[in-house]
Write a structure and sequence with these properties.
2 domains, 13 helices, 465 residues, Chloramphenicol Acetyltransferase, globular
Length: 465
């Protein structure tokens, strides 16, 4: 017998986001993953998948809309494991990538579907890759990685029912979030939103009408030295590496947009509570953060203020998005415009060192930085997105994806150059002002000698048209 429950705040946030996507873009909310299962046999993989379905309610949940129009989740006692098998004479990494691309390109029905499927790719009968694609309603990036780890543990272990202990259930979290125990938390989030809406800005970028040919450009700066400078600045100013890059992103946007206040939308993982940290579900939500960019402020003070304000934002990162939307409707701008998340910032910790991407030079010094342009995974949605991947000390990648009609190639390169130069000065000249940073980073012939090729390319390439 199935059980119905309201959505968690994370699920509701994802649902509202999915509603903004056209039908032919729904695949862009899928979360794909390619798991190397070499050494595991097919029967063990099948057993592990069935165990995961029993363990985690989110893998046997469908989503629906009630008579009142509100979405809800329906937890089923069981569902079939939707994993196909592809047998090839031999399998190369490119084969796994191709299968994953094909899975990712298939959108899930928003209503009534479990929202996940996979393909087991075998070489001469031996499993090599398990390609999976899951709706963002089912998992976030943390959750899909946790599922990979659990699948390996179960498949490699003995066939025992001891591995089927249920994990934390999203519907239990939903009951908490909507109940009396969270009343103070909901009030705190409402006060935070009211303060944000009153101070503004409500948006950073001009609104563009929907276009059938909407597209995005995307560039990634990779640098070992940048990671080291960020870690050094974080330690010197007693802030987190994440806060250093959050602050510098706000400064970079301030520079290219010529605005003294920037509203960043921070991606909050909402996995701070040990009880709910391991839940397999979508927990991410966007929480607004105002970056006031005073040109006379020393970088040291700018970083500390951004750090404290970020902590406050993350404290209110789990909230009812419908309640926030109602508050936004009641607090329009002078021109009648409403709050919009148009500049996203997402910091993702990756423990593994991508040596294959950023090899050390023969002399043991960091290699030159690179700035590469690649076709983006998404060509709709938010017009500006900054994602940082790194381990907080030895390597980092900063990716900027934008709508070229609002922020073009030169602006993207300027943003990344500002981040790199800002990290250098925050670590070596923290009394330098934010204004001096922006003047130098955005000027023609920006300080290439000060940056050095290990931190930022001397001649960053532009996107290939």
């Amino acid at each position: 017998m199935f059980v119905d429950a309201p959505l968690t705040f994370g699920q509701l946030s994802t649902w509202r986001s999915i509603e903004t996507f056209a039908a032919d873009r729904l695949m862009e909310v899928n979360v794909p993953a390619l798991w190397d299962v070499d050494g595991l046999d097919a029967a063990a993989i099948d057993r592990a998948l069935r165990t995961l379905v029993r363990r985690h309610e989110s893998l046997r949940t469908t989503f629906h809309t009630g008579a009142d129009g509100r979405p809800f989740q329906r937890v089923h006692p069981d569902i079939p494991v939707r994993v196909d098998r592809l047998d090839l004479p031999s399998v190369a990494p490119a084969d796994g990538a191709r299968v994953l691309r094909e899975l990712y390109a298939r959108p899930f029905p928003v209503v009534g579907d479990p929202g996940w499927h996979g393909t087991l790719v075998c070489a001469a009968g031996r499993p090599r890759y398990l390609a999976v694609s899951m709706s963002h309603m089912v998992v976030d990036v943390w959750a899909i990685r946790a599922l990979e780890e659990q699948l390996r543990q179960i498949a490699a272990g003995p066939a025992t029912d001891g591995a089927t202990a249920p994990g934390p259930a999203p519907r239990e979290l939903a009951g908490l979030q909507h109940g009396d125990a969270w009343a103070a938390h909901r009030r705190g989030a409402a006060k935070y939103w009211q303060k944000i809406l009153a101070g503004g800005p409500l948006s950073n970028l001009p609104a563009l009408p929907p276009r059938p040919d909407e597209r995005r450009i995307q560039a990634t700066l990779r640098s070992h030295r940048l990671a080291g400078l960020v870690a050094r600045a974080a330690a010197a100013h007693r802030v987190s590496p994440q806060s250093v890059l959050t602050a510098l992103t706000g400064a970079a946007l301030s520079g290219v947009l010529s605005r003294g206040r920037i509203m960043l939308s921070l991606m909050c993982a909402n996995r701070f509570d040990p009880l709910w940290q391991p839940v397999i579900s979508t927990m991410n939500q966007l929480v607004p953060l105002v970056c006031a960019v005073d040109p006379d402020t020393p970088l040291s003070a700018f970083l500390k203020r951004a750090h404290l304000n970020s902590l406050l934002a993350y404290r209110h990162g789990s909230y009812d998005v419908d309640a926030a939307a109602r508050l936004a409707t009641d607090a329009p701008g002078p021109d009648g415009s409403l709050f919009v998340h148009d500049c996203w910032f997402n910091y993702v910790t990756e423990p593994a060192n991508p040596a294959a991407v950023l090899p050390e030079s023969p002399l043991g010094t960091p290699p030159d930085a690179s700035l590469t342009w690649v076709p983006p995974a998404r060509n709709a949605g938010h017009p500006c997105y900054v994602r940082v991947n790194g381990d907080g000390g030895t390597w980092v990648e900063v990716t900027v994806r934008t709508d070229p009609e609002l922020l073009g190639e030169e602006e993207v390169a300027s943003m990344l150059r500002t981040v790199a130069l800002g990290a250098l000065r925050a670590a070596t000249a923290p009394d330098a002002t934010v204004g001096a940073l922006l003047d130098d980073a955005l000027a023609d012939g920006a300080p290439a000698k000060e940056l050095g090729a290990e931190l930022f390319p001397r001649r960053p390439a532009l996107a290939q048209r």
